[in-house]
Amino acid sequence: MIVSDSTASTTVHIGLKLADGSFFPIFPEVFQGSKKLTLTTVRDNQESVQIDLYKGIDKEVFEDAYIGSLIIENITPAVKGDVEIELVIGIDQEGNLHARAVDRKSGEKQALSVSLSSLAQRASYDIPDFEIETTVPPSPVEEESEETLVGETYPIGTEDRRRSHLKKKKGSPLGLILFIILGLLLIVGIGIGIYFLLPWFQTQFGGTPSPTVVVASPSPTASPSPSPEATAAEDAALSPDTETATEEASTEESETADGSTLDESAGVWYMVVRGDTLWDLSRRYYRDPFQYMKIADAPQNDIKNPDLIFEAQRIFIPNK
Questions:
Q1: What distance in Å separates the CA atoms of residue 275 and residue 311, rounded to the nearest whole number?
Q2: CB hemisphere CA count around 86 (13 angstroms)
Q3: 69 and 153 in contact (C-beta within 8 Å)?
C-alpha cells in the first residue's frame, strides 16, 4: 500500500494513532473489505505492542473518535524494527469493523470486533508504542474471506483485568459484636426504666396530694374495779360536767379501737388518696419500696390484694 503525503484528503478515514501522535489512515469509514499492514516495535527488547484505532482526516486524529485497541504481549525479545506484527483490518457489509493482530515469531495474537453504527464517543487513550515500518511496504489490497473476525477486546492498562477476580467483602465481626452488646444494653435499660418509673407514673396519674397522716390515739388502760361502796360515793359526787367528759372519752375509745391495743409509737394511720400504692407508701415511709408487704401484712389492715387499695381507705403503717 502506497501512502501519498502530497494530496490532502477531507474524507474521514479509519486508521492508527502512531507513537508521535500523528494519524495513519488505512481506509475510509465507508469502505467495505479488508487490508493488511505490517507493524514493528520502536524500542529494543520491547515486550508488548498496543495498537490504537481511531478516526481522522489526513494526518489529524480525532481524539474523541476512539474505536478500540489491540495489545500483543509476550513478544520475542529483539532489537527495534526486527519484530513484525501483521495487522488485518476491514469492514463487513453490516458496518462492523474487524481487526486481528499477530506476532509472526511468537504467534501471540489479539482480535477485535466493533459496530461502527453504535460506537459511542470515548475519551482519548495513551499514545501507542509502535510505528509503521517504513522499510517494508504494506501488502496489496486483498479481499479476505467472508469469515467474521471475532474475539474479545484486550483491556487497556498495565494489568490484565481479565485475570482479576472480585473479592467479596467480609463483614467485620467486631462491629457485629458491638451491635449485639448495644442491643442488650438497650433492652436492659428499658426494663430497668419500666420497673422503677411505672410506680412513679402511677403516682403522678391524677396528681400527688400531700398525705394526710392520722395519729392513732392510745387505748385507755384498764383500771381495777372499785368496790360497791366507793362506786356509790363517786356517783353521788359526780357532777353533770364529769358525766359528759366520761361519755366523750368513751366515744373516742370506740372510734379508735379496732380490736387491738395500739401504742402511738407502733405506727401511724394514713388516709389513702387517689393514685397511692403500697409501693409508694413503702418508699415514702421506709425509703425502700420493697417493704410494701410489711404494710399489707399489718394486722390492723384488711388488705386482701396488695396491688389494690381504695381512695379514702385508712391504712395503718407500722414503724420500720
A1: 8
A2: 13
A3: yes
CB 98 within 8 A of CB 89: yes
Interatomic CA distance for residues 32 and 14, integer angstroms: 12
Domain ranges of the chain: 12-142+149-156, 174-204, 206-221+256-320
Contacts 24+ apart (CB under 8 A), 169-176: none
Q: What is the pLDDT of residues 39-91, one digit of tens each?
A: 888 888 888 888 988 888 877 887 777 888 989 888 888 888 888 889 999 99
Task: Indicate the residue type of 103.
Answer: D
In one-letter notation, the amino acid at residue 153 is T
Place of cell 524500542: 43
Positive/negative CA dihedral, 266, 268, 272, 275: negative
For strands 33-41 and 85-91, give the pairing: antiparallel
May I ask the CATH architecture of the domain 12-142+149-156? Sandwich (2.60)
> In this structure, what are the phi and psi dihedrals at residue 211, rounded to the nearest 5 degrees?
-70, 145
What cell does 268 get? Answer: 401511724
Mean pLDDT of the chain: 72
Cα–Cα distance, 200 to 194 (Å, whole number): 10
Secondary structure of residue 282 in the 3-state scheme: helix
Query: Taking the model in full, what pTM does it have?
Result: 0.36
CATH class of 206-221+256-320: alpha beta
Centre a 10 Å sphere on the Cβ of residue 26 and count the other Cβ atoms it contains: 20
- Coil, helix or strand at residue 37: strand
